[in-house]
Amino acid sequence: MFGPPLDLEVKTTAAESGGWGVVVVSGVPGEGGWTHIHRGQAEGFFVLEGEIELLGAESVTQVAAGAFVLVPPDTEHGLRIVGDGPARWLAVWPSALDGFPAAHQELVDGGASTATLAELRRRHGIEPGRDRRRLAR
């Protein structure tokens, strides 16, 4: 969520669905890689295509197409695309993320500062974890 940009296609917001936002996330190897925490809210991922790594506070787990991952509330997590080609996954996001993708893109396009982007993440219930891109594979 904080690393190189991933493409996000919002399918439904939590307000529209009555509780959960659903997005399709896609990118190429090397994208992703920063961990974060949603306090009090779970998040789920269904891998549609490619290979990703699920990054935890102290671990890295390989996840391939067809797998489903449910991240419990208050659990540090992130995803990094690995392998030889692109990856896509369906993310079921907590309600706090409604509006985050569009607001984030608008700020990035406008050249917002790191502090401004951090404030946006805080307002949407995203607590940064550690940078897991440096974790040995």
Fourth-level CATH superfamily of the domain at 7-96:
Jelly Rolls
* CATH class (first level) name of the domain at 7-96: Mainly Beta
Secondary structure tally, helices: 3
Strand residue content = 35-45%
Order of helices and strands: EHEEEEEEEEHHE
- Named CATH topology of the domain at 7-96: Jelly Rolls
Q: What general form does the structure show?
A: globular
Helix content: 10-25%
Instruction: Output mean pLDDT.
Output: 88
Uncertain segments: none
* SS class: alpha+beta
Which CATH architecture of the domain at 7-96 is right?
Sandwich
Describe this structure in words.
The mean pLDDT is 88. 18% of the residues lie in helices and 40% in strands. It has helices spanning 14-17, 100-109, 114-123, and strands at residues 7-12, 21-27, 34-37, 43-49, 51-55, 60-64, 68-71, 78-82, 87-93, 127-131. The protein is built from 3 helices and 10 strands. It starts with 6 loop residues before the first strand and ends in a 6-residue tail after the last strand. The chain has a domain at 7-96: Jelly Rolls, CATH 2.60.120. Strand 5 (51-55) and strand 6 (60-64) form a beta hairpin. It is α+β, with helices and mostly antiparallel strands and 137 residues long. Helix 2 runs antiparallel to helix 3. Strands 1-2-9-4-7 form a 5-stranded antiparallel β-sheet. Strands 6-5-8 form a 3-stranded antiparallel β-sheet, with no helix packed on it. The radius of gyration is 14 Å and the shape is globular.
